[in-house]
Structure formats: C-alpha cells, structure tokens
Amino acid sequence: MLHEGLREQLDTFVDEHRAALAACLDGLTEEQARRRLVPSATTLLGLVKHATFVESVWFAEAVTGRSRAELGIVAGPTESFALTPEDTVASVRAAHAAACAASRAAVADLGLDDVVTGNRRGPLPLRWVLLHVLRELAQHCGHADVLREQVLADV
Asked: In the chain, where do the E strands start and end?
C-alpha cells in the first residue's frame, strides 16, 4: 500500500514537471523560443527538445532495452539541445507530448522495485529512474523559468 501511494506521488510530480517544462513555450514566437541568452546552446525550445531526449533515454531505452540508434535519438545529451530548421514550437511540443505518453505506457505495469536493464549504468529499479527524471526535469524547469523571464523582459 505504501508503495502504491509513493508511485502515485512520483508519477504526479513527474507529470507536473513535464507540463511545467512544456508550458515554458506558451505564447512565445518561434524567435523567442529559439533565443540564446547564455553561452551554451540552451534555449527554451532546446530545453523541451532535450526533455524529449530524456524521456526516450530513461523510459524507451532503459525500460524497453531498445538502443538509441533504434529509437532514432542522438547519442548524448549535448546534441539533444541542438535545433534544426525543422524544429518549431509546434513540432517540438508534439514530439515531447508523444514521448511523455510513450514513457507513461512503458512503465504502466511496472512497480517501483521492478528493475529495468536497458540503461548504460546497468540495472536500476524504476524508483531510481523516476527520481532521476524528476530531478532532471526540476532542474530544467528552473532553467526555463530564468530564460523565459529574460525572453519576456526583452519584449
């Protein structure tokens, strides 16, 4: 029973952070979403694109055991921020929403103590994966808050 409540809490917190990160693009123009305000390649659109990569790494690769090549994702996190001319607010949002839905489906029948074996770190319990993803999403939500504030201040 305790685990069921904890799983529900973790799923809720992960979903809240997924939604918060996606919302950083609300009401922005394509130019605003792509605006670079820091020396790294981090942009608001790039953060959501990176979060899509995170979903694929931690839920498609780690849970299902499919390789990054098989999943059609870039090799590492640095490349996942890179924007192509085809990336738009709408296309990145759609890819992120699809990745989140696929992630939910991938873990729907797993318990917190179930071990996933497809991650490069080796076997990990689902609890570890959910906590790691929550930590990463929270960090990127903070980045997005600051970047969005800067973008909107320039309007």
From this structure: 115-116, 124-125
Which residues of 18-155 form beta strands (DSSP E)? 115-116, 124-125
State how far the Cα of 36 lies from the Cα of 120, in Å rounded to an integer.
31
Amino acid at 3: H
Residue 134 — pLDDT band, cuts 50, 70, 90? Answer: very high
Among residues 53, 58, 42, 55, the alpha carbon closest in space to that of 145 is found at: 42
Q: Record the tokens describing residue 68, joined without a space.
A: 């990054």
| CATH numeric code, 2-153 | 1.20.120.450
- Check residue 58 and give its pLDDT: 96
| pLDDT at residue 17 greater than cutoff 50 | yes
Where along the chain do its domains lie? 2-153
Q: Are 151 and 29 in contact (CB under 8 A)?
A: no
